[in-house]
Amino acid sequence: MALFLNELHERVVQWQGVLAQQTYLWQQGKWIAGQLPATGGWLVLLAEQLNKQAFVSSLQVLDEAGVNAELCKVETVAARELAVLRLSSWSPALKAALQQQATGWDVACVPELPSSNQPGLVLMDMDSTAIQIECIDEIAALAGVGEEVAAVTRAAMEGALPFSESLRRRVAALAGADASIIDAVIDRMPLMPGLTELVTGLKAMGWKVAIASGGFVPFARHLQHQLGLDAVFANTLEIVDGKLTGRVLGDIVDAEAKARILETLAQQHGMALSQTVAIGDGANDLHMLAKAGLGVALHAKPLVQEQAPVCLNQLSLEGVLGLLRAR
């Protein structure tokens, strides 16, 4: 039995009935009943509403690359729609071509996906990832040095400055500010869309979830208490007599530290790195994204978009839950 794209509903989620009894293999312009003999990679298409055009564009890329695909399932996760395909082969060039076509949907083209049926770990950045702000920029604005600090933050996230140097420079600008502004920022700290759904979904799967942040401990601990996170790692601002001194205490949580934290947590919980997911948006997240079994860039800076294994640009953190439910 063959299926033709022009016979299928415009909304991909409506294909569920067609797939209920049979899997289909894409060959020579149509779906035929069958399965791939082996998995060479995975392709996940995600959108708020996933339409057939995402398939048409993606299948054209697969055809040009000589890659066959088995349509495994379509489903709705956290009110977002996704489709999962097993691929006969994977390459960085294929991933890049599929991403270039993804104008109204998100795409993950990876050699392997973590399994939601096994224990796993998600480690995420905090500022502009778990929350919608850069906390140090908000502190600086209240301290009257907002523009100066924000410019350094942008340079660091884009990879133009070493992170540790940029952090020390920004913190030094805060010397003498009243420490109460930390609580003022916490009181109005907006969560990233999809964060609550992601954490709830991870807990239901029995996964661990933690934060490794180049930001600061009070904000990370607030999130830990609010969401029940398993662990948080961040930097400590020195405070003397109720004032910020402009110094950071201890080792800085930089790019290398984030990657080490991922590896250490996986070892502590007896998990293979293939069962880890890292999420971030800045250049200081790239080592962590590369080391994880699945590295996801969330609305990321251009440098990170170029290098990250997966980029989510349409969806937010709920898209990560979709990727974990894909396999």
UniProtKB/TrEMBL annotation:
Pathway: Amino-acid biosynthesis; L-serine biosynthesis; L-serine from 3-phospho-D-glycerate: step 3/3. SUPFAM superfamilies: HAD-like. Gene3D superfamilies: 3.30.70.2020, HAD superfamily/HAD-like, Phosphoserine phosphatase, domain 2. One of its GO terms (molecular function) is hydrolase activity. Its cofactor is Mg(2+). Keywords: Amino-acid biosynthesis, Hydrolase, Magnesium, Metal-binding, Serine biosynthesis. Belongs to the HAD-like hydrolase superfamily. SerB family. This is Phosphoserine phosphatase. It comes from Oceanimonas smirnovii. The gene is serB.
